[in-house]
Amino acid sequence: MTALAHAPETPYLRHWQVRALQQYAEAQPRDFLVTATPGSGKTTFALTLAGRLLAQRIVHRVIVVVPTDHLRGQWADAASRLGLWLDPDLPNSVGPVREGTQGYVATYAQVATKPMLHRNRAEARPSLVIMDEIHHAGDGLTWGDGLREAFDTAKRRLGLSGTPFRTKADERIPFVSYEEDGDEVRSIADFSYSYGDALADGVVRPVVFAAYTGTSRWLNDAGEAFAAMLGSGTKKDEDKAWRTALSPTGRWVPHVIAAVDERVRAQRAAGIDDAAGIILANDQETARAYAAIAARVTGEEPAVVLSEDADASQRLSAFTQGRTRLVVCVRMISEGVDIPRATTLGYLCSARTPLFFAQAVGRVVRARGAQETASVYLPAVRPLLELAAQMESARNAVVRVTARDDHDLDPDLERIPGSGEGFTALDADAQFAHVLTAGRAITAESLSLDEDAADYLGLPGLLSPEDMATVLAARDVKLRRQVAEFADDVPFTPTTWRDTQEVRKDIHRMVSVLAARSGKPHGQIHAELRQVIPGPPTAVADYDTLVARHDHLMTLVV
After folding, report:
1. Is the pLDDT of residue 200 over 50?
2. What is the side-by-side order of every strand in the sheet holding 86-87?
3. CA angle at 257 for the pair 254 and 260, rounded to the nearest 5°
4. Angle of the 284-298 helix axis to the 252-269 helix axis, nearest 10
5. Are 149 and 22 in contact (CB under 8 A)?
6. Which residues partner with 66 through β-bridges?
7. Which pLDDT tens digit goes with each residue over 267-292?
């Protein structure tokens, strides 16, 4: 008799899962590909199907293939809750599947190393092979070849992915159907459940994108100095400005990390007690630098989860179950990993493919309760804004992006292209640009807030995107000075006219807020402000006077 891990739970099935199971039951296909938006319940669907096929004796073994070691344990735990015992620790050195189990969980790399071993296991008993995030079989030809060799004769195969994916025509993933799409081929799913579908069903949180611009400064290979705003200029300038902004040596990264942490703190204060944020970096060296920055600007050591660390899986589990506010990682957390308490993402990396972006955002969209909203903080550059707009199109809206020349950025590139030998990032500052929601880029110009504005981070739904944009803008200068306190080599002084202009604009925004609340004319509020902070009118006041007035207004607004 096959042992069970413990008494099984009867899973609650969402409407899409029921429909997919019905479609499968009617068709009884050998191969079945499901694309379902991250956070919608692909694992529950797959394990429910596995349980039904086992009960019907169509298969007698379940083999799950996953991209990372951490997901082996996550799948095994999920299976145990449904009464299935899948072994997450079966190495290639052990030939047969252990007695008392109904199958096992392996990684793609493990299968590719010894495909014939896994083929023998799949042939020993009629098997269902579940391939989680199957697009990873295209990460290298050896993985795809190993998958085909191992499971070509399997009784049933189920592919799962968070979003439709593309593959080079000569690197097709086994057991996936394709249609031609230019130089690439696009996967054809047997059943699809999009972000828009999940949003309508209340399965995932709606996402609000907060875009940050700023001035980047760098040296070219000839030692010449250049500067450009994120989201402006030519392709060449935008690439370098983006690369510079992501450098740990400037002020852009500390500013955005501080903004992410502020949102998490306020969510906790408003009742989401375990709210957490994810900081996504390009590589492991940069991730460690970001972690050091996060510790300085937030006052708390973040969790750091890097795949090269031997205890990475344990660290990830500890963060998932703990109360640490932030985690810094690279790709390990970008897909498949379930962290329900994560509500905010700092997308501080240059990966720009639709698949990676959707998977990363998917880490913060899993809904736990009504009126929850996910937030993504990202550079205000066209490739990422276009990807955000693709998710926003699920709300039947499209963000309008300024037209550029045909030679501009290729949105399908994975990373920022190299900027030439001798490129040196000098510094970058950060400025809040806009909130992207429902297909609109919302700035804070001439907007006012109600009395509940201070709670914008707490119970999403109480504050409109317009109000959120206003509060983010009002707090922006405060964050910039906060960051500068920890940047010993980067004193906070007005380096350009923009610095003074931003403070002045924030003062006008907050005066509008107070005028709307009190009914007083703007001029009267300005006069009262000059009595508290003496000096010339705001239009001609110097930087230090403006900062003092800004700080005083902050106490009145929030």
Report:
1. yes
2. 86-87, 103-107, 61-66, 127-131, 156-161, 31-36, 191-193
3. 155
4. 60
5. no
6. 107
7. 888 778 899 999 999 999 999 999 99
